[in-house]
Amino acid sequence: MYSKKAIFQEHFNVSTMDEAFLIYFESLSAMGKDSSYSAYTKLQIPFEAPCHPPLPSWDEVEQGFVEYLKPNPMAGKAFRVGAFMVKFGNDSTIFQEAESLLFLQANSQVRVPKVYAAFTRPILEWTRHFLIMDYIEGETLSGEKWLSLSDTSRSIILSKLCEQFRLLRSIPSEGYYGCVNRHGWQPWFSFLCKMQPGPSGPFDTYEEFVAALTSSAHLIRAMAINTDDFHPEEVALLSRMGSELLRCNGRQPVFTHMDPSVGNTIIRLIPGPEGEEDWEVTLIDWAESGWLPAWMQSWCLREKLTMETTMHDPNGKESDQYVEYVTKNLEGDYTKQLQLFDELRKGILYGLL
């Protein structure tokens, strides 16, 4: 078990939290401005799919970009141009998402947007990365929408969602933990953050992956509260994290969607074979995806999914029932892992969010 001083020394080469914080914020600022991507993708940029419909011109993309940001410069990072969705960003996750989508198109039957182009352009004093893909027709799922649906509609949608996860998890494993084509994630990435330069991962073994998780948890907690050292309760919880994960089931790497929120779920009402009610369900936003232990999809669902509405408890029974239905249809019982990560979230603020 590390002391805070040892963690600050490992990640920042300093011994106090005040010194670490200065380096931390400088590093985050530098990472946010870093538009390099070669260490995170094998995709040749600019990329253009061999076959595609006529794509929007750069003038159309630029106009859409400017119009999209006019009302709110801090808006999300995707906008529609005709039959296409254009996603943009400042870091390599745009191209990692393109690579993941191309992998899924070639190696699975999972419903994903088709990727047509990926490129880099300077715009509004920044170097931006762009991804052009299919616009998925339908409606973004939300708490209000879910509450408006009949029991029959909900049952069909949940069944179709479970089928997407089944198809995703049936892709033959490539034997490592990381992004597509043996790449790692950005060093500031969520539950795998670190302050040393270079990607987080890939990891050849489950033990290496767990070591990275626990190292990240130590770092996050050390930076959270300005105390001389960890409290005994924190020490006990962090120690349990490593030992319990090394003993748990579901260690094999499976392809995982790490942000399966309702906001990343598109539903579309379609007629069934006999004219009956049917639904298409498509998961979008694959920037956070890759080969992870089988138990992690359940954790991602638990942490990222809420049926929050303006009129309903965001942690109410609809969210719980939705998550419970989907996780029960994933092979394996990962109750112990979920209980552990609930404790980690409450005890040391460690999680996906």
TrEMBL record:
This is Aminoglycoside phosphotransferase domain-containing protein. Residues 84-296 form the Aminoglycoside phosphotransferase domain. It comes from the Eukaryota. It comes from Ampelomyces quisqualis.
